[in-house]
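Message: Study each token:
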Amino acid sequence: MKCGACQTSWRPDEVDSKATEINEIPIKTNDFSASTNPKELSPSKKRPFLRLVALGATAAAMTGLTVVVLNDRAESIFNRAISWIDAFIPGKGLQGISFTNIKTSIDADRGETSLIIEGEIRSDSEISKNLPEIQFTMKDEAENTIFQWMIPAPVPTITKGEAVSFKARLASPPRDAKNITITFSGA
């Protein structure tokens, strides 16, 4: 027969002092197995692999949670900054806002000629935007500004997908005007 622990060979009919003294054989343990006597092992030698796995899982969860929280926070801060820019500098920060369906016509009512400009303001922006006044600029052939006027925005704010109609009327427009530019005040 052969001992599994110390690899000593003997025959069962021989009486050997080693075979009778089994309690004297030292028990070999490694760091990953449980000890027969838990008081002998220090806390750092108890299942270090499981501690590393738990530490890694905790770090991954904390990182994922931090990214999610910071992503929402960063978007909130960005939207707040755009609102502040709109409040202090009218017309700036209006990305996603455009003029559409612009139509002009001349109305001659009671001998007075008026220029009528109609259209829509459309929003494709992800957040609500404050609308500043609408500014109209008339220019001649040489691109010199002849006349300029403003009207209040039809609504104070506009949200994603919303379209708001506006209408402006100018009595006695200049005859030498060849081009009209429509912008937001301050843009």
In short: Helices lie at 17-20, 48-88.
